[in-house]
């Protein structure tokens, strides 16, 4: 619809040029400026060219229908601008942390298939990360992997440098990497607390700081942090994880205010109970009880989280959204059951699956 209206505006401008040929040079800049998203210029430029051609017809037939020589020259200027613009507006470059499995994988695939160049960060799952890259490339996209611990400043700097060396910039940052080290506070070791805070909170801080340096120079960028409803309502046995995710939410709101003047949008997504390898291990009786508390009768899917992230990262309609936290869950019930290995907790707007020995694999509770 937007492309059609722009093409209509171009026609109106061309008609006015018949009576005012002295303004024939005024069409080029507004046409391009009004139709290119600061993030996904290449994708929208293709839509613009298609819309312009389909609505206005081929260059020769359109020009021949207008006798005025000044209009012919203007048509040539507009078409030349639409051809040249994509050369200056490359596909968005995205860094996704913790992208080898779960939610991170779904996000990387969604953005890769949308035409982005994607750096797939992983900590240990190199094979899975390579598979994500191959799938993106199979769909015609570009991707590369980077193994590194985002809780370490040197690794983060090397990761951002890798993206810049390969593609020249960083347009979008998705902070997804995280771990769980669950246990009641009275029994929690300091190491359990610190590991979660270091990766889930300090890692987000380090990645934002490094990527924002690139974005600030260009005065554009989008950052999406994957938080959790646990950061909003808390959860038994996850004081460390809850504190880290609450910190991510506070960080998101503060950074959004700091970088707004540089046209950098910063938002957070707080998922509830999302399907994963961990949920697949649940017994039938436990799963049945869980699903009975969910109005939709099912778990959330990683691809659904990815859809929301894709909107925030790429869609021009999201350019006015910043400093917001999007809760992604589906129940207001409170239900607790304890199994010898798992503790499944539902608290207010939250579904929670705890596994004392698990690393974070895309399940945000």
Topology:
Blueprint: H1 2-19, H2 28-33, H3 41-56, H4 59-64, H5 69-88, E1 93-96, H6 102-113, E2 117-122, H7 126-138, E3 142-147, H8 153-167, E4 172-175, H9 190-218, E5 221-226, H10 230-233, H11 239-259, E6 264-271, H12 277-280, H13 284-292, H14 302-314, E7 325-328, E8 335-338, E9 342-347, E10 350-355
Parallel strand pairs: 1-2, 1-4, 2-3, 4-5, 5-6, 6-7
Antiparallel strand pairs: 8-9, 9-10
Helix pairs in contact: 1-3, 1-5, 3-5, 6-7, 6-14, 8-9, 9-11
Quick structural gist:
With 365 residues, this protein is of the alpha/beta class. The chain has helices at 2-19, 28-33, 41-56, 59-64, 69-88, 102-113, 126-138, 153-167, 190-218, 230-233, 239-259, 277-280, 284-292, 302-314, and strands spanning 93-96, 117-122, 142-147, 172-175, 221-226, 264-271, 325-328, 335-338, 342-347, 350-355.
Structure, described:
Pathway: Lipid metabolism; fatty acid biosynthesis. This is 3-oxoacyl-[acyl-carrier-protein] reductase. It is found in: Plastid, Chloroplast; Plastid. Residues 92-277 form the Ketoreductase domain. This protein is α/β, with parallel strands linked by helices. The chain is built from 14 helices and ten strands. The chain has a seven-stranded parallel β-sheet, with helices on both faces. The protein has a three-stranded antiparallel β-sheet with strand order 8-9-10, with no helix packed on it. Helix 9 links the parallel strand 4 (172-175) and strand 5. The radius of gyration is 24 Å and the shape is globular.
């Amino acid at each position: 619809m937007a492309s059609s209206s722009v093409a209509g505006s171009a026609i109106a401008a061309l008609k006015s040029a018949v009576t005012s040929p002295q303004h024939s040079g005024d069409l080029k800049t507004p046409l391009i400026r009004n139709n290119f998203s600061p993030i996904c210029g290449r994708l929208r430029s293709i839509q613009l060219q298609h819309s312009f051609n389909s609505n206005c017809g081929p260059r020769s037939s359109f020009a021949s229908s207008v006798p005025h020589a000044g209009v012919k020259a203007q048509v040539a200027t507009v078409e030349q601008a639409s051809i040249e613009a994509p050369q200056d507006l490359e596909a968005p470059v995205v860094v996704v942390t913790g992208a080898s499995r779960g939610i991170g994988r779904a996000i990387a695939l969604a953005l890769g298939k949308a035409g982005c160049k994607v750096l797939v960060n992983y900590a240990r799952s190199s094979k899975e990360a390579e598979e994500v890259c191959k799938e993106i490339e199979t769909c015609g996209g570009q991707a590369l992997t980077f193994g590194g611990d985002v809780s370490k400043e040197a690794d983060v700097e090397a990761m951002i440098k890798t993206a810049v060396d390969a593609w020249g910039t960083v347009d979008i940052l998705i902070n997804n990497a995280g771990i769980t080290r669950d246990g009641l506070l009275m029994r929690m070791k300091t190491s359990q607390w610190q590991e979660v805070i270091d990766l889930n909170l300090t890692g987000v801080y380090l990645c934002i700081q490094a990527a924002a340096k690139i974005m600030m120079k260009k005065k554009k960028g989008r950052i999406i942090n994957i938080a959790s409803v646990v950061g909003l309502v808390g959860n038994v046995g996850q004081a460390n994880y809850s504190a880290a995710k609450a910190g991510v939410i506070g960080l998101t709101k503060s950074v959004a205010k700091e970088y707004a003047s540089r046209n950098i949008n910063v938002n957070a997504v707080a998922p509830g109970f999302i399907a994963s390898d961990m949920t697949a291990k649940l017994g039938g009786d436990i799963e049945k009880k869980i699903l009975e508390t969910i109005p939709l009768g099912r778990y959330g899917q990683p691809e659904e989280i990815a859809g929301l992230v894709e909107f925030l990262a790429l869609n021009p309609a999201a350019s006015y959204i910043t400093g917001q936290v999007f809760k992604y869950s589906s129940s207001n019930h409170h239900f607790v059951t304890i199994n010898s290995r798992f503790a499944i907790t539902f608290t207010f707007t939250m579904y929670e699956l705890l596994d004392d020995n698990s690393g974070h694999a895309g399940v945000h509770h």
